[in-house]
Structures are given as C-alpha cells and as structure tokens.
Amino acid sequence: MTPPPSEGQPYKVVPIHKHRELMDQCIALINSEWPRSYTARLWSLESSKETLPTSFVLTADDGKETAVLAHAKLSPIPADPHAVFVESVVVARERRGQGIGRLLMREVENHCFKTLRLDRIYLCTIDQQAFYAKLGYELCKAINIFGSRPTFNQSTKKTWMTKGAPSK
Q: The N-acetyltransferase domain covers which part of the protein (predicted)?
C-alpha cells in the first residue's frame, strides 16, 4: 500500500488518456468494485479524450512508483448537452475515509464547471448518498443518460443526485 502523500508527494488527478501507463492499475481498481472483462474496461478507458467521455484517475507518487487510488468517468448526456453524467467513481478500499473521494470529486467538478463550462452534474449511487450529499449533491429524478429523448430511467436500486454549477 502506498503511504499517504507527504508535502513533496501530492495527489494528482489526471486524465487517463494522457497516462496510458496507468491503464492496468485503473482496470484492476474498477474491477475490484464492479468486475467486467479486461477488454471491456480497456475499451472504455481508451475512449477517454479531452472532450467527453473523460476518465480521471487520482494518483499518488512515492518517488518509486505511481499508484492509482481512485477513478471517475465523465460521460455526455445526449438529451442535455449542458450536463454530464459522472459514473464509475471508485476509491481503493484501503484508502477510503481519507478524503481521496472528496478530492477526486472536487477536481471532477472543477473540470466540468470551469473547463467544460457545463451547468449540471448528474450521478447515481446505490450506497453513497450521504457522501455525495456532503459534497452538495441533491436528490433528483432519474434521467435518460443514453438516448436523445429526456425520458426517465426507472431503475429502483439507484438513487439519482445532481449538482448545479456555482453561481458566478
């Protein structure tokens, strides 16, 4: 396990498409929570680009190696070009409760609201409502994240949440 970064070893949040050497670690991290084939994960991560979709990883460097500690993917919402869907947010089990998820989400939000100039972030979760609520997310109706029609996804297992861009 990589120790918590010190002053000289900060966490970094970087897009995976600029750090292809981290793909295998990222695949292992995501699959530790939601198992899928290596090929399916690789295909998803390889679709990351400057526009959407974009996969971000939070890393720590101890001087010898860079460790992937967290991941989040930003996907477009065809029915709403001013919003983004954040998915596959995962923090390494042994690093949970250390502020890593909060840091990752802050960087994701900055990218969405400041760089991409989007108006709204949507996400859904099964068991992390309290975490996202602490970050300012509010409950909302389910949205259609796949097609161009604004019909609602009716999944009952997931809780949908949203956060708007800060007022200027």
A: 14-166
Number of C-beta neighbours around residue 147 at 10 A:
10
Does residue 1 lie in a domain region?
Answer: no
Cis peptide leading into residue 81 (ω within 30°) = no
Is the C-alpha dihedral spanning 25, 30, 34, 40 positive or negative?
A: negative
Q: What is the pTM of this model?
A: 0.90
In a domain, 5, yes or no: no
Q: Which of 80, 70, 86, 54 is nearest to 12 (CA)?
A: 70
Q: Which two tokens stand for residue 8?
A: 């000289």
CA-wise closest residue to 84 among 129, 48, 123, 126: 123
* 115: CATH: 3.40.630.30
Q: Is residue 125 part of a domain?
A: yes
pLDDT at 48: 98
Domain count, the chain: 1
